[in-house]
Amino acid sequence: MLRRARRDDLPAILRLSGDAPTAMGVPEPEASASIDPAARAAFDAIDVDPDQMLVVAETPDRVVRAVLHLAFEHAGSGRGKRRARLLGLKVDPSLA
User: Fold this and answer.
1) For a surface tag, which of 30, 35, 52, 55 has the fewest beta carbons within 10 Å of its beta carbon?
2) How far is CA 35 from the centre of its chain?
3) What is the DSSP letter of 18?
4) How many degrees, rounded to 5, is the angle at CA 15 between CA 52 and CA 4?
5) Please, which pLDDT band fits residue 25 given cuts at 50, 70 and 90?
6) How much of the chain is in helix, strand and coil states, percent to nearest 5?
């Protein structure tokens, strides 16, 4: 299922990008508490920006397996219609 990312998805998003504390050897219970404030601020900035969106793909048991970063812009062609541009895609390597 695809859905808009929530702030509580941040540990999974960072894990997918290799920036999670768990990827650096921090045990899972401590990982959420040790997320860099800059990562939280970046998520919050994207979340409130109407021209950006983070989308997560999750399994039926609610495990985040991918994250997409989209930017919305007005196209020069197509009468200025809005379009989405993919800025980034991270997929759980276990799915490969």
Assistant:
1) 30
2) 14
3) T
4) 30
5) very low
6) 40, 30, 25
